[in-house]
Amino acid sequence: MSFAFVVLVSAPVFPNAIRSEEGVRIKTLRNYHKTFNYQPELSYKMLLLSSVAHSEHEPQKCMNKAVPQDKFQVESVVTRPCDAIKSKCSGFVAFSHVLQVIVIAFRGTEDPFQLMDELLETLFAPSEDFLGGKVQSYWKRSFVVLWKDIEPRLKSLISAYPSYQVWVTGHSLGAAIASVASAWIAYKRMVPRENIILYTFGMPRVGDYKYALQHDQLVHNSWRVVNFDDIVPRMPPFTPGLPGGAYHHGKELFYTKPALSIYSPHKECHGKPTDEDLTCSRGLAITNLQQSVKHHSEYFGVRPGAYCATY
Questions:
Q1: Rounded (5°) CA angle 107-141-208
Q2: Which positions ≥6 away from 124 have C-beta within 8 Å?
Q3: Where are the alpha helices (DSSP H) in the chain?
Q4: What are φ and ψ of residue 92, in 5° steps?
Q5: Which pLDDT belongs to residue 181?
Q6: Cis before residue 258, ω within 30 degrees of 0?
Q7: Nearest to residue 298, comparing CAs of 42, 50, 5?
Q8: Which of 93, 109, 173, 241 meets the CB 3.0–4.6 Å disulfide criterion with 13?
Q9: pLDDT of the residue at 32
Q10: Are strands 73-81 and 88-96 parallel, antiparallel or unpaired?
C-alpha cells in the first residue's frame, strides 16, 4: 500500500543547539562510513525480506521463493492491532545458517484506512519520547505492540547464535518500525553494534533531530534507500526548527533515476544538512504525484505489498 500526500515545503531552520551538534555528528558519520558501504545485492535481498513480511499467513512459502539459496527459516510472525481503528501491524523473525544471519522484517501499510490513520496521527498528534529524542507516535506504538512478542524470540535466537548478524528491514510503515527497532537493539546492546545492519525502503521521517543523532550514533551500518521521487520520505515535512520537528537519520542512498534495478544510477548522500542532503531526494521537486506514489510502491521492479500474492 502506498502513501499519497500533499507535500509541504519548509525552510531549513536550525536552532543553535542543532548547529553546535552538527560538527560532532558529521565527524562521527564520516568515521562510520569509512567502514560500511552500500551493497546493492544486499539491498535487493533486504527488499525481498521486507516483501515477505506482507505474507502473514504463509511466510515460509514466500520466503522459499524469495531467497531459496539462503535457506531462511521463519521462526515466528507477530501481528497485532496498532491503532485506534484496530488496523494491524506485523513483523517476523527468521534466521539463516547459510548466511549466519537473524532477520527482523516489518510489514508496510495494510489498507487505505490504516493509511489515513497514519497520515492524520503523524501530522497532528504529538511526538513521543524515545532514546533522548522524539519519534512519531504511530511508529513508536507500532514498535511497542510488536516488540513485546518479537523480543523474546529474538533473544532466544541471539542466545543460540551469538555471532550471527542481525538484519532489520522494512518498507514504508515497516521501514519506520524497523528504524525504531534497530535503534533499540543497539541501545540495549543485544548484539555487538557492528553486527546490526539496517536497510529501509521508502521510509518516512521517523523522529526529530535528536532521535536522528541518536540513531546515527547507535546504528552504524544503516541505509535509507530512496527511489528517485518517492513521496513518502518527504513526510512528515522537514521541520528541524520546531520542537520535535521531523528530521531523517542516515544514511540516505538516493537513486537519482527511477530504481528499475539495484544498478540504476544512485549515490551515497554525504552533503549538508547531514542526512537531509539537498543534492539528494529532499532537493528533488515532486512534479508528478502519480509517478511519485508509483515509485514508493515499487523498488527494483518489486512491489513489496503484492510480491507474496503472486505465490
A1: 95
A2: none
A3: 16-35, 40-52, 59-66, 112-124, 137-160, 173-187, 209-218, 289-297
A4: -135, 160
A5: 98
A6: no
A7: 50
A8: 241
A9: 52
A10: antiparallel
Return d(Cα 163, Cα 191) in angstroms, integer.
8
- Give pTM, 2 decimals: 0.90
Residue whose grid cell is 546492546 = 189
Query: What's the distance, CA 91 to chain centroid?
Result: 13
Question: Which strands make up the sheet holding 246-247, listed edge to edge?
Answer: 128-130, 133-135, 207-208, 246-247
For the record, the C-alpha cell of 80 comes out as 497485532
Query: What's the grid cell of residue 116?
Result: 489515513
What's residue 70's pLDDT? 97
Q: Cell match 523473525: residue? A: 93
- Alpha-carbon dihedral of residues 256, 261, 267, 269, nearest 10 degrees? 90
Q: Which residues pair with 14 in a beta bridge?
A: none
Residues of the chain with pLDDT under 50: 1-14, 17, 20, 24
- Non-local (6+) Cβ contacts of 85 within 8 A are 113, 114, 117
CA dihedral 158, 204, 138, 238 (to 10 degrees): 130
Query: Within 13 Å, how many C-alpha atoms sit on residue 23's CB side?
Result: 4
Cell output for 286: 515532486
**Cα 63 from Cα 66, distance rounded (Å):** 5
Q: At what angle do helices 209-218 and 173-187 cross, to 10 degrees?
A: 60
Look up residue 147 and give its three cell numbers: 516488540
pLDDT of 124: 86
What angle, 0 to 180 degrees and rounded to 10, lies between the N-to-C axes of helices 137-160 and 173-187?
Answer: 50
Residue with cell 546490526: 196
Find cell 510488536 and name the residue: 146
State the Cα–Cα distance between residues 78 and 48, nearest whole angstrom.
18
Distance CA 169, CA 182 (A): 9
Distance CA 308, CA 59 (A): 8
